[in-house]
Amino acid sequence: MSNITIKEVLHNYIDSGDDKLLQMIYAIVREYNNPVFSEADITELEARTTRRKNGESKTYEWPEAKSIMTGKTGIKG
After folding, report:
1. What is the CB neighbour count within 10 angstroms for residue 5?
2. Do 33 and 39 contact (CB within 8 A), yes or no?
3. In this structure, which of 20, 22, 30, 71 has its CB flanked by the most CB atoms within 10 Å?
């Protein structure tokens, strides 16, 4: 579907949408235009990714990570 067609379809949904649909579309657009992460957050996430790929940080399988997060283990990471 072309961008022009998508815009037309979205305009039709907005023009005929009920309050709930309009609120959902608005929430999506607001989140898209206001990223959750700041530039500093992104820089830190990239640094952590680099450390993980270089083997400088420990990774966990899901059951172990879940145990750590819920406090049901003595493992310290």
Report:
1. 9
2. no
3. 22
